[in-house]
C-alpha cells in the first residue's frame, strides 16, 4: 500500500480519539470530573502491559537508564493529557486540537538548547504562522473581543509536556524497540494513575463515584480509544519506514482538519454524540485558523 494512505489513516484515527475524549467528558464526566477520567485513562494502562509482553518477551532485559526514561516519559504524557482534558472540558474539540501544532515549536526549542539544532528561516516562519493561527482560533467574540487565555495556557502547557515526552521517549525507544518502550511507558502511566488516586483526594472521590455508576460503558469506550490510539501509532511508525520523516509528519499534521470535519458531521447528523458551534462566523474563524496552522506545519517540515 502507498505510504501516503498509511500515514493519512493515523491522524484520522487520532481525530476519532479526540472526539471520544470529548464524548466521555460531556456524557460521563459532567461537572468538571477531570480527575475521574485521568485516573481511569492511566490505570487502564495495566491492560496494555500483557499485550506488550506477548509481542516482545524481552521487556525485562531493558537497561535501568532506558527503563527509567520511559517511565518518566509515561508520566509526562499523562500530565500532558491532564492539561489537554481541562482545555477540552471547556472548549470545542475543533478549537482545542489545532493548538497541538504548538508541539513541534517546543520540539525545535528543546532541540536547539539540548541538541544544538538550528532553525531555518522557513521553519521560523512556520512557527510564527502556527502561533498566529493559535491566537486567532482562541479569540472569543462578543461585545468586546478577547483571547481565551485559559485555553491557550492549558494547551501551551500540554504541548510543552508532549514535546518533552517525545524527546524523552525517543531517547530510549530508538534503542529498545516499539513494544518494550510501550510496556515501560505504560508502567509510567499506571504509576502516575496510582499517585493521582492515592494522593489527590478530589480525584479519588470523583473516580470512585464514577465507577459506581457507569464503569462498564466507560471501560469499553476507554479501551476502544486506547486501541485506536495504538493502531494510529503503529501506522505512523510503519509509514516512517516507507517515506521521509518530514513527509509523514506533514501528513500527521492534518489531524485538526479531520477533527473539524468530524465535528461538523457529528453536530449535524449525530447531535446526541456531541455538538459544537457551527454558525457561519464560527466556521469561518475555525477554517481560517486551521488553514494558517496547517500552512505553518508544512513550513516546519
Q: What does this protein look like?
A:
It is a single chain. The protein is mostly helical and 301 residues long. It has one domain (3-300). 81% of the residues lie in helices and 1% in strands. The chain contains 13 helices and 2 strands, in the order H-H-H-H-H-H-H-E-E-H-H-H-H-H-H. It has helices at residues 3-27, 34-43, 45-55, 64-90, 93-96, 103-115, 121-137, 149-176, 178-199, 201-242, 245-252, 255-269, 280-300, and strands at 139-140, 146-147. It has a two-stranded antiparallel ribbon. The protein is globular and about 55 Å long.
Outline the fold blueprint.
Elements: H1 3-27, H2 34-43, H3 45-55, H4 64-90, H5 93-96, H6 103-115, H7 121-137, E1 139-140, E2 146-147, H8 149-176, H9 178-199, H10 201-242, H11 245-252, H12 255-269, H13 280-300
Antiparallel strand pairs: 1-2
Global morphology: globular
Q: What is the count of helical runs?
A: 13
User: What is the typical, i.e. mean, pLDDT?
Assistant: 87
Please tell me the total number of domains. Answer: 1
Roughly what fraction of the amino acids lie in strands? under 5%
Q: Rg from C-alpha positions?
A: 19 Å
Topology order in helix (H) and strand (E) letters: HHHHHHHEEHHHHHH
The CA-CA distance between the termini, in Å, is 23 Å
Instruction: Give the beta-strand count.
Output: 2
Determine the fraction of residues in helical runs and give it as a percent range: over 70%
Strand order of the largest sheet: 1-2
In terms of per-residue confidence, which ranges show pLDDT below 50 for 5 or more consecutive residues? Answer: none
Structural class: mainly alpha
Largest sheet: 2 strands, antiparallel
